Amino acid sequence: MSFQLDKVVIFGVGLIGGSFALALKSAGAVRRVVGVGRTAGSISRALALGVIDEAGKDAGAARGADLVLLAMPVGQTREVMRALAPHLEEPTVVTDAGSTKRDVVQHAETELGGALARFVPAHPIAGAEHSGVDAASATLYQGRTVVLTPLPQTSERAAALVEQAWEACGAQVQRMAPREHDEVFAAVSHLPHLLAFALVDLVAGHANAGRLFEHAASGFRDFTRIASSHPEMWRDICMSNRDALLAELSGYEAELAQLRAILDRGDAGALQAVFERARAARNRWLESLK
Amino acid sequence: MSFQLDKVVIFGVGLIGGSFALALKSAGAVRRVVGVGRTAGSISRALALGVIDEAGKDAGAARGADLVLLAMPVGQTREVMRALAPHLEEPTVVTDAGSTKRDVVQHAETELGGALARFVPAHPIAGAEHSGVDAASATLYQGRTVVLTPLPQTSERAAALVEQAWEACGAQVQRMAPREHDEVFAAVSHLPHLLAFALVDLVAGHANAGRLFEHAASGFRDFTRIASSHPEMWRDICMSNRDALLAELSGYEAELAQLRAILDRGDAGALQAVFERARAARNRWLESLK
Questions:
Q1: Interface of A with B in 271-290 (CB under 8 A)
Q2: Coil, strand or helix: which one is B34?
Q3: B127: buried, middle or exposed (CB in 10 Å: 19+, 13-18, 0-12)?
Q4: What angle do CA B223, A274, B213 make, to 5 degrees?
Q5: A191 reaches B (C-beta below 8 A)
């Protein structure tokens, strides 16, 4: 394989950052991976597991890197970018792995200065129930999609380098505008998470919650699986994509109001029509995945 | 095993009725199973598969049965009960497998006459994505719960016989009042189905629906799995449990209004608190299943 990076620096070596490191290594696409973390524990664990080759002390570890990946919790994006900016000399390219993109772009515009043209916002679509470096895997990104949302000022060299790195990890890369990205994921990811948390919270708040959970079955379990997601991470995602999420929430509330009206007037035909339309759409989608 | 029925008659030999037949046979708990269906096709298929031993022509097939199971679509309950009533002589016991119970009880009170004391409303909790007699299995009810909702006038002999039959199928039997049953399942089953259909319908209605589905991932897939359920069956369930479902829907709308207010005022702490409460409740529930 002709694509090889000399030095990759990863801020936040958990599931996402750790899997990126392992996938690049497994593809022979990197010579040396340096990990930087807030806590010594996770970084020494990543060293012990062979996920990274070196522990970086601070943002200065980015010096001389071909590629820097920001994979810490998105709430730390601005602070890490600020610390990083003085160390980002040509030709170092920076990318991230955040689930929302407009907020990351705003921070980059404020903090990265001259390095902005070498920043490529990205979102690897690889949710997993587990987190932490122990769950990292060289195959996490196989066949997954990574969305890049380059800015008008992003250099094509930087975008192409990030694209090649993700392709080396086995992912398919797509490009999208940051606004479109955030609207798409508000609908198919952020809203469903909010709805799942809401249902569990509703059930748990009933006086007879124990009785209710006792009779919850596989439909409830699958519907609410994403309500076992990381609360802090989803708080950050929902807050940073608040406008798009609120717009989708309004649409959903309107959909429920329509179903309520149908139930109120006992219109079995209209109810069946909605259910059939939804099932057909979902089944078409499942077919398209084959 | 000392429990054995001589003749069991099943109205509607699909997944539920067929699996009941196979499980009883596999336990040596029945000598002869007669199936009755609206269409000749499914009954001859059930015969060919050995799920039933005999095809009954009509409601008269119930004569001389120890136990009659009503497992056809719940929309036909009243009509089948009416046809059945003249043939229900002592000691024939009747039960059903409907997902809602108050409506079934009302039909039984209207239609079954003197046989009402030998009617035991029941709900086997065994959802499956597949339907039809080809999906029937002797192990479908292993470890599952069957809720019985006997009436004040139900004879203990009848309730005990139905209980023994389900236990022979490997299920655990619980008793509950019809109203409590319907309220519990409105919360943990019927509402989630409505919500999943609503989300898919919302996404499918977007101008850029193709783009949205293209980026839907495993979280969306699991959340919406139940939106691939049978539209006619779920129409009937939602209509027949309309009052309890509307009450839960109101609770859910209030929950969403609360989350909207939290997002509107940008209250990250309150959002995280809801998510944490929900995740903790879900995880406690998962623990309790172990």
A1: 271-272, 274-279, 281-283, 285-286, 288
A2: strand
A3: middle
A4: 45
A5: yes
| pLDDT for the residue B257 | 98
Report CB contact under 8 Å: A218, B251. Answer: no
What is the value of pTM for the model shown? 0.89
Read out DSSP for A5-41?
EEEEEEES-SHHHHHHHHHHHHTT-EEEEEEE-SSHH
Tell me the C-alpha distance between A8 and A92, whole Å: 9
Q: What is the mean pLDDT of chain B?
A: 95
Q: What number is the ipTM of this complex? A: 0.89
Q: Among A132, A150, A176, which residue terminates a domain?
A: A176
Give the CATH number, domain containing residue B268.
1.10.3660.10
Mean pLDDT within A122-134: 83
The domain in which residue B127 lies consists of: 5-176
* DSSP letter assigned to residue A281: H
Q: Is the per-residue pLDDT at A259 higher than 70?
A: yes
CA A255 to chain CA centroid, Å, is 27
Name the nearest CA neighbour of A97 among A65, A75, A130, A125. A125
Handedness of CA B3, B8, B10, B14 (dihedral sign): positive
- Examine the fold and report which residue of A124, A146, A176 is the final residue of a domain before the chain moves on: A176
DSSP line for B209-239: HHHHHHT--HHHHHHTGGGGS-HHHHHHHHH
In angstroms, rounded to a whole number, what is the distance separating the alpha carbons of residues A204 and A201? Answer: 5
Q: How many domains does chain A have?
A: 2
- Cα nearest neighbour of B237 on chain A: A268
What DSSP designation does A53 have? S
pLDDT in tens, A268-277: 999 999 999 9
